[in-house]
Design brief:
The complex is a heterodimer of chains A (about 110) and B (about 120).
Chain A lengths: L3 E4 L2 E4 L5 E7 L7 E6 L6 E5 L3 E2 L7 E6 L2 E6 L9 E6 L5 E2 L3 E5 L1
Parallel strand pairs in A: 2-11
Antiparallel strand pairs in A: 1-3, 3-8, 4-5, 4-9, 5-6, 7-8, 9-10, 9-11
Chain B lengths: L2 E5 L2 E3 L5 E8 L8 E6 L5 E7 L6 E3 L7 E6 L4 E6 L8 E8 L8 E4 L3 E5 L2
Parallel strand pairs in B: 2-11
Antiparallel strand pairs in B: 1-3, 3-8, 4-5, 4-9, 5-6, 7-8, 9-10, 9-11
Classes of the chains: A mainly beta (about 110), B mainly beta (about 120).
Chain lengths: ~110, ~120
């Protein structure tokens, strides 16, 4: 099973600041990695697929990068609605999700 | 509008059964793989099962294999999850989700709001 490890567990930032979230895979997943956003009481929302492609309707402030085992989700300037939990997911070998990174208001 | 609406959750005793349903609309249901993902209280996401668009291929997480059965009825645009021999650790919100592409083990681009399953004596 491919294990995805996200860091940090919690990121405390202010609106307008840049957020950088990391996802590391236990073995290469090529570029088959997605990022999802989940707000309290809501379903996850697909943000990024294939490591760097924004899903339909996702603002340009969200960007993804990486390949192999190391991936990054960057939010260039946090908006109030961006404070949420973010999960990475790989689809190279079945599916696994990371444990999540919570982006909270500082 | 593409929409998924889950139903069938509830409270059940250990060893009991439940059948979840997910009504799909706004897209050609039989074209896409469909999946169930669950989230235990305060925990992360765990995929449960996936079925191909034609219903011929199904896959299960080890944690539910042999107890859960995924199926779909394209005439009703509905996805199902039959859950038997339920355990306390199956307690979670269960989401159905549409796969991004036509195969299985793709990304999930549309999600329902979820239905809650509680297994307790």
């Amino acid at each position: 099973e491919i294990v995805l490890t996200q860091s940090p567990g919690t990121l405390s930032l202010s609106p307008g600041e840049r957020a950088t979230l990391s996802c590391r895979a236990s073995q290469s997943v090529s570029s088959y990695l997605a990022w999802y956003q989940q707000k309290p009481g809501q379903a996850p929302r697909l943000l990024i697929y294939d490591a760097s492609n924004r899903a339909t309707g996702i603002p340009a402030r969200f960007s993804g990068s990486g390949s192999g085992t190391d991936f990054t989700l960057t939010i260039s300037s946090l908006e109030p609605e961006d404070f949420a939990v973010y999960y990475c997911q790989q689809r190279t070998s079945w599916w696994t999700f990371g444990q999540g990174t919570k982006v909270e208001i500082k | 509008e593409v929409q998924l609406v889950e139903s069938g959750g509830g409270f059940v005793q250990p060893g009991g059964s439940l059948r979840l349903s997910c009504a799909a609309s706004g897209f050609t249901f039989s074209t896409y793989g469909m999946t169930w993902v669950r989230q235990a209280p305060g925990r992360g996401l765990e995929w449960v099962s996936v079925i191909s668009g034609n219903g011929l291929s199904t896959y299960y997480a080890d944690s539910v294999k042999g107890r859960f059965t995924i199926s779909r009825d394209s005439s009703k645009n509905t996805l199902y999850l039959q859950m038997n021999s339920l355990r306390a650790e199956d307690t979670a919100v269960y989401y159905c989700a549409k796969e991004f592409g036509g195969g299985v083990f793709d990304y999930m681009d549309v999600w329902g709001k979820g239905t809650t399953v509680t297994v307790s004596s």
